[in-house]
Amino acid sequence: MAAPEPKRQRTHPNYELLYHPTIPGRGEYVRLVFEAAGVPYSDPANEDQNNGYPKVQAICDANSTGDEEGNPPAFAPPALRVPGAGKDGKSLLICQTPNIVEYIAPKVGLAPADEVDRLHANQLMLTALDMSNEAHDTHHPVAVMLYYEDQKEESSRKAKDFRESRIPKFFSYFERVLKGNKQLGKGKYLIGDKLSYADTTWWQVVDGLHFAFPKEMEARKKEFPLLFATFYPSFKEEKGIKEYLASERRLKYSMGLYRHYPELDRQ
Amino acid sequence: MAAPEPKRQRTHPNYELLYHPTIPGRGEYVRLVFEAAGVPYSDPANEDQNNGYPKVQAICDANSTGDEEGNPPAFAPPALRVPGAGKDGKSLLICQTPNIVEYIAPKVGLAPADEVDRLHANQLMLTALDMSNEAHDTHHPVAVMLYYEDQKEESSRKAKDFRESRIPKFFSYFERVLKGNKQLGKGKYLIGDKLSYADTTWWQVVDGLHFAFPKEMEARKKEFPLLFATFYPSFKEEKGIKEYLASERRLKYSMGLYRHYPELDRQ
Q: Which residues form the GST C-terminal domain (chains A, B) (predicted)?
């Protein structure tokens, strides 16, 4: 008997992603799960330039002790609002990228069905997001509130270490995960034989790094063949993802989490 | 009718925490959950200096594509091994601090019973661990593999920003969470009226910062009264925790995640 399909709800609440406008940023890790699943969501800061972003700013009010629905305050975007999913049918508001992804993925069919696989998917997502944070820190190693131009020297050292030590360490790790799962995942999936939120998260990191460090990526691609020749390109052909990447909803990289400063790339 | 107690297993598997010896580090976020719950665990690197650490090193083999039990490779400690909890009764091996904590907390009675509360506990743990990472980066802003002495100038700038911008931002956030939950949690708990893994994680961050930045903490304590006068001291009196903090199992801070360099503290 075949294993049962992961449960996927047929009707969905109005998921509302609250994040900064115009950049993919950390919001993109959430968007990719919805897009791969074909499940609608709203993204007010990008959909309504006048009235959308104030909704995001409101949840990050530096004096808030929580909202009227009983949710604790938000530290920073992204956040997800889900009408009816809170206590006593109120709105749920949750923050932290991995928390949001882990919450929605099983509901939209993007989490492995098996509990052990799900623990490993979570492990891989968290490891991918660690690399995402380190990529951010290559252009902001000193202070998130200062301009890059005010921390260029430190960025240069940080980016060198990132390229020479951290990229090989993380890429070797995910290459080995793909290799270990090759029989089931054909080099396309990190866990099992289906797309999961581990894949969407790691793919977004690799794609962001292609934007930020194009020369470094080009120079590394033969070292990690499953990653570069199978996983990375085949993801772009997945149902839901192909349409999304060609759509206007897929925001362009610019001055967000992943940034291209030629002086930080391989020379 | 009173709400049901969170389910807590009466018998437990032999939980094995695999982490570096001698330092609290990220392993401490896992230890505190077991200790607060009174659930036994083994910590081989600290219990058996000769044969323990090789077990930790073995799981981080840079060529591994996974183990014989079907677990993917580990990126870095901490890891948790749970005999019998993997597929087909094999051993489960999972990594990533928040993944491990989120896995064990409900099994040992340290997670909120309500699902919404659990999502918020997860959010708070992840936010606390973000601050933990930033605290680490105050002494390693450039490269984790270099000595502090090789990145002292960058550390000085990073620590200044951490003290002046990040400590107020994170502490204000958690003070407001305590305030929002005050009626239920009496300023002692972040979520609801019981100790949870959100509390153990955030307390360990605050405690680590007391070691790393004692002058800064002393200067800040009146700004965050619930945090410093209620939450922080009352946690030390919790059942399981009081005994643990007085025991030899509680490792001393030294040259790990939290480090005391007087020149990085408030002058």
A: 114-264
